[in-house]
Amino acid sequence: MRKNTKGHNRIYACLGLVCSLCLLLLTACGPVDFLQETVNGRLEKVVVGEAKEVETISADRFAYQQLSAEEQTVYDQILDCIQHHTDCVTVSTKDQDVLDKAYRCVMADYGGLFWTSGYQYNTYSSFDQVIGMEFMPTYTYTQQEREELQAQIDDVADLWLAGIDSDASDYEKVKYVYETLISQVDYDADSQNNQNIISVFIGKKTVCQGYADATQYLLWQLGVSSIVVTGLAGGDNHAWNLVNLDGEYYYIDTTWGNTHFLGELQGAKKIDYGYLGASTQDLAATHTADMPFDLPACESVTDNYFYQEGLYFETADLSAIGSRIREKYRRGATEISLRMSNLQDYLQVKDDLIGQDRIFTYLEGQQELTYFENQSLYILTFVL
Fold first, then answer.
1. CA–CA separation, 263 vs 259, rounded Å?
2. pTM of the entire structure?
């Protein structure tokens, strides 16, 4: 038997080999099959656990849909094991790559599995041939502790989701979740439980993994399909989300939407809307996904924040831009963002509004303001 440990997606490193290969196996996870082998002229029995048949509950989950039939079966067995807090389960594969891919897809589809942080696996071998494999989750809480924490999480999640109508559009739902998480939860690299949603709903302080898990967790409750994407952003390990809005795919990066994370603005925390409904092109220069399957191209702009809010401008038409700023201001906006289509027009508008102080022409009675910019996405944001 070979026992190995795997960490949670990108966050935990492999702990390596912890148990040596054994020819005769005396115990297993569940019901057993007996394979006969001839060893030193004697017929011996090798015990192999029987893989459990599990009815899927994940047919409508994105990562699940990217898997082969064998990988989906293993995914179902892993998820069932974790959800029932089972110590171990025999899986329907002998390939550790299949096991790891299935596990990563479970964690991408289900951001709320806060009570597990990785897994170990056993391989059962006869001579050099693998004849079976077991999956053993690494649990960070007992089942009783998990249930108590889940109740606290549910109370907060229900409170937050009470502010959005279930009949709202997909765009309205994702905008609400994005704004709620940024306003309610601080970015804190030293926060406890920051690799899961406990840090979000109970601690109110988290990092990118917590934000992404919580975004997926809340959106799914609102009927919006979403997965957790992991990889690199700005050269560091990072997590964000892929969402399906009205049949089209977009990226959401709740962490980068927090102005305190990027250091864009000192003082009061505000929202950078450049990462709400972002395209593949928008993130190409900064984000690199590392997923066990190909991600779809995000090309639609229909549910991008700036298109939805009428704040995207193809040209440096100061009259049209000023009119929209005035309209938002009169409606009581305390933060107004606008996005240009190219760098040249962005720099022109920035000079007109800030360099020449024309912004105050459209903000009757406003004497001062703060602004921050996201030049890579041609976005100016005014904080009133």
1. 6
2. 0.87
From the list 193, 138, 204, 205, the residue with the least C-alpha distance to 3 is 138
Supply 78's token pair. 């892993």
| Residue 281: φ, ψ to 5° | -65, -40
* Contact (CB, 8 A) for 371 and 380: yes
Intervals of the chain under pLDDT 70: 1-48, 262-268
Q: Distance between CA 97 and CA 117 in Å, rounded?
A: 18
The phi and psi torsions of 284 (rounded to 5 degrees) equal -55, -40
The span from the CA of 49 to the CA of 33, in Å, is: 6
Per-domain residue ranges for the chain? 2-140, 143-308, 310-384
60 close to 86: Cβ distance less than 8 angstroms: no
Mark out the alpha helices in the chain (DSSP H runs). 62-65, 69-83, 96-109, 143-161, 170-184, 198-201, 208-221, 259-262, 280-283, 305-308, 318-330, 343-350
Q: Which CATH fold would you assign to the domain 143-308?
A: C8orf32 fold (3.10.620)
